[in-house]
Amino acid sequence: MNTEQESRLREDLRRAVDGETFRTDPDVVLGRARRARRRSMVTRGAVGTGVLAVAVAAALTGSHPAGAPEVRNAAYVVERVSAALDGGSDSVYRIVDHDEGSVWYQDQVTMSQYWVHGTGGTRIEAWDSTPVIDHYAHLMDTTVNHKDRTYSTEDTKLPAYVPGTLPPRSSFADRIKKSISAGGQEIAGSGEYQGHQVIKLGYPAGELWVDSTTYLPVYRITTDPDGRRTTSDLAFLPRTPDLVRTVNTPQVPPGFTKVAEANTGPGHGG
């Protein structure tokens, strides 16, 4: 995180607490900081079309044909989707961002996150977690740039005292449940997507395509308050030992040089 982002993070967190006790879920503030940092990394040169971006774009081909019969009761679909998401609490949730060309993973047990952009020797990876150390929450972040063979680490101590444990962080799944339950839902149609018969659920911030049998989300279209449109594939993955290690444990290859901030400037993308 650069100095401006870190200062804003600390100031926002100070406003979010009551006295010296941490009483507010930090997800909004931390999420804003992470999104700003990741977008900065991508905008400043980590993007390009890249192998991953081309691959996910190709996956969209033929994603809109007619298919499954239309389901007309949006409230029923929302209820089934919420139940399906609750059932994935011991999984790893994956989001493939088609527009950014990156992939997010979140361990639904530890809530640690892993982000990767690009492939092979040009990829950038980042890990973050929020442990409580001596009654203070820390935003721990490790970023690895494979093209420059550099890495950086961040340890931002949050300013509010934590008397016990940190309030539970909301998961990606929780955020989807909240967004589709806020009202204004409607059935936007049905179809087939990557081998799934899907129901398309419209809601004010976008559209969620869910498997018509399992009701698990497989594709999402959203528009941020700033007007940024995002399309992404969604999936719950089995929480295997290898995947748990990938998501929760930063991997810095031998020989990489530690720097103040991993280089993501122009010309350093895939």
Describe this structure in words.
The longest helix has 20 residues, at 27-46. Helix 1 (3-16) runs antiparallel to helix 2 (27-46) and helix 4 (74-86) runs antiparallel to helix 5 (172-180). It is built from six helices and 13 strands. Helices cover 27% and strands 32% of the residues. With 270 residues, the protein is α+β, with helices and mostly antiparallel strands.
Attribute tags:
single chain; 270 residues; alpha+beta; 32% strand; globular; disordered C terminus
SSE map:
Layout: H1 3-16, H2 27-46, H3 50-59, H4 74-86, E1 92-97, E2 102-107, E3 113-117, E4 124-129, E5 132-133, E6 136-145, E7 150-161, H5 172-180, E8 186-193, E9 196-203, E10 206-211, E11 217-223, E12 229-237, H6 241-248, E13 257-258
Parallel strand pairs: 7-13
Antiparallel strand pairs: 1-2, 1-12, 2-3, 3-4, 4-6, 5-6, 6-7, 8-9, 9-10, 10-11, 11-12
Could you give a quick summary of the protein structure above?
The chain has helices at 3-16, 27-46, 50-59, 74-86, 172-180, 241-248; strands at residues 92-97, 102-107, 113-117, 124-129, 132-133, 136-145, 150-161, 186-193, 196-203, 206-211, 217-223, 229-237, 257-258. It is an alpha+beta fold.
